[in-house]
């Protein structure tokens, strides 16, 4: 698959803000609203301008407006020539309902960085599959820039912020990614391929739909994933499902983010395996390398993981290298 790489941003360019899933914080006295404001201020301090979507503050049930309102905002931001990139205000649990309403031809003809992670994995996978667009798996406006960045150590925040800017404005490959925290090798080896992945649960929910690539299109991929606020059994269940569809027969390597908030499954005195044990047990029949504890996921500093670009990992040396740029 030939991926479409969008144009790089210049400082002063406009980044559009949309709410594809979780609703906008209405209470201006809430911490959540303050996180939204802080996220906007972070973009402004980086040198970008911002533009809010028409339906940003819409609400229906537990989501940010109807599926059509949210899809209309996304389509409009891609169509708007003033907007050079788009960022999701937050994740949530309802992104999947907009996928059938998006104009993938419009998106393909107006490629732009679309920024977010977690529930936004639905959009990244759909854009990659239907429009062949590179996906920008990185910090959400309110959650990451407005909240997580607020409690990180200053050095960690600075490095995360630097990566955030570089991946959007630098048309040369980022090259060797320097770990911000400690990474781990779970299975030895070296692999090279294109990045594909996101939130493990979201990816699993898309399998078998038009918004998830054919397994044959993922041949040679470096499959990356993260998960949050789930029980440990879900990791085994999803990995088993992905094994059954043949994904692990075609990928060349795996990159796992920070698994910070995974709850134990076992009851009483039953043994609870470690997360590493769960992963290695389910992948014991495969010899691709696994690099783990990499700096992406929930409640942690993020390095961008651009879907579709070529990368190389060496799990023995704890190295991850981006071989091409996510923008041109």
TrEMBL record:
The active site is at residues 118, 226, 298. Residues 192-313 form the LD-carboxypeptidase C-terminal domain. It holds the Pfam family Peptidase_S66. Gene3D superfamilies: Class I glutamine amidotransferase-like (3.40.50.10740), LD-carboxypeptidase A C-terminal domain-like (3.50.30.60). Belongs to the peptidase S66 family. Residues 15-137 form the LD-carboxypeptidase N-terminal domain. This is LD-carboxypeptidase. GO terms for biological process: proteolysis. Keywords: Carboxypeptidase, Hydrolase, Protease, Serine protease. Signal peptide: none annotated. One of its GO terms (molecular function) is carboxypeptidase activity. It comes from Candidatus Woesebacteria bacterium RIFCSPHIGHO2_02_FULL_39_13. InterPro entries: Carboxypeptidase_A_C_sf, Class_I_gatase-like, LdcA_N, Peptidase_S66_N, Peptidase_S66C, S66_fam.
């Amino acid at each position: 698959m030939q991926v479409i790489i969008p144009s790089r941003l210049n400082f002063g360019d406009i980044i559009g803000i949309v709410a594809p899933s979780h609703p906008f914080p209405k209470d201006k006295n809430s911490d959540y609203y303050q996180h939204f404001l802080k996220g906007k201020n972070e973009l402004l301090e980086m040198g970008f301008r911002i533009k809010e979507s028409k339906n940003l503050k819409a609400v229906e049930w537990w989501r940010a407006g109807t599926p059509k309102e949210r899809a209309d905002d996304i389509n409009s931001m891609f169509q708007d020539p003033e907007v050079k990139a788009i960022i999701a205000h937050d994740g949530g649990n309802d992104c999947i309902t907009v996928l059938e309403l998006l104009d993938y031809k419009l998106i393909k003809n107006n490629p732009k960085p679309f920024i977010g992670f977690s529930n936004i994995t639905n959009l990244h996978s759909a854009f990659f599959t239907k429009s062949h667009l590179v996906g920008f798996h990185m910090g959400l406006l309110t959650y990451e820039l407005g909240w997580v960045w607020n409690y990180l150590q200053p050095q960690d925040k600075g490095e995360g912020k630097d990566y955030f800017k570089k991946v959007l404005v630098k048309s040369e490959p980022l090259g060797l990614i320097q770990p911000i925290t400690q990474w781990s090798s779970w299975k030895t080896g070296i692999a090279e391929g294109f990045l594909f992945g996101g939130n493990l649960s979201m990816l699993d929910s898309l399998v078998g739909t038009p918004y998830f690539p054919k397994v044959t299109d993922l041949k040679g991929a470096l499959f990356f994933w993260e998960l949050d606020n789930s029980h440990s059994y879900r990791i085994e269940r999803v990995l088993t499902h992905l094994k059954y569809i043949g994904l692990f027969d075609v990928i060349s390597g795996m990159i796992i983010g920070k698994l910070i908030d995974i709850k134990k499954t076992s009851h009483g005195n039953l043994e609870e395996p470690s997360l590493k044990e769960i992963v290695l047990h389910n992948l014991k029949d495969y010899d691709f390398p696994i690099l783990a504890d990499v700096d992406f996921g929930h409640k942690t500093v993020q390095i961008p993981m651009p879907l579709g670009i070529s990368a190389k990992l060496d799990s023995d040396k704890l190295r991850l290298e981006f071989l091409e740029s996510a923008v041109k």
